[in-house]
C-alpha cells in the first residue's frame, strides 16, 4: 500500500479553486494511478477531515513548440475533493 504523501502531490492554487473553497471543495494534483478510494483515504489521513465526494480528471499536457519541433508537457491527474458539512476546513488553504 502506498503512503498518502505518495498519492497527494501538491495543491492546485487558482482563482477557480479558491472560489470552490467556500463550498468545501479542495483541488489537488494526485498520482496518475490513484483511484477515488485511495484519494479519499489519503486526504482523510493527512488532513484529518471527512470526505463526502471525490471527482477526478486526467489533464493532458499542453502542446509546446520550439521552432519546428513540437512536443507536449506531461499530463497529470487532478482531484476535486468535497468535504462534509460537519467536517472542519483544511488549515493549509486558510492563509491563501
SSE arrangement:
Blueprint: H1 4-7, E1 8-11, H2 15-20, E2 25-30, H3 36-47, E3 51-59, E4 63-66, E5 69-72, E6 76-83
Antiparallel strand pairs: 1-2, 2-6, 3-6, 4-5
In short:
Helix content is 23%, strand content 36%. The chain has helices at 4-7, 15-20, 36-47; strands at 8-11, 25-30, 51-59, 63-66, 69-72, 76-83.
Which features characterize this protein?
6 strands; 96 residues; alpha+beta; four-stranded antiparallel sheet; two-stranded antiparallel sheet; Alpha-Beta Plaits
Characterization of this structure:
- It is a single chain.
- The protein is an alpha+beta fold and 96 residues long.
- It has one domain: Alpha-Beta Plaits, CATH 3.30.70.330.
- It contains 3 helices and 6 strands.
- The protein has helices at 4-7, 15-20, 36-47; strands spanning 8-11, 25-30, 51-59, 63-66, 69-72, 76-83.
- The strands form 2 sheets. A 4-stranded antiparallel sheet has the order 1-2-6-3. A two-stranded antiparallel ribbon has the order 4-5.
- Strand 4 and strand 5 form a beta hairpin.
- The N and C termini lie far apart (32 Å).
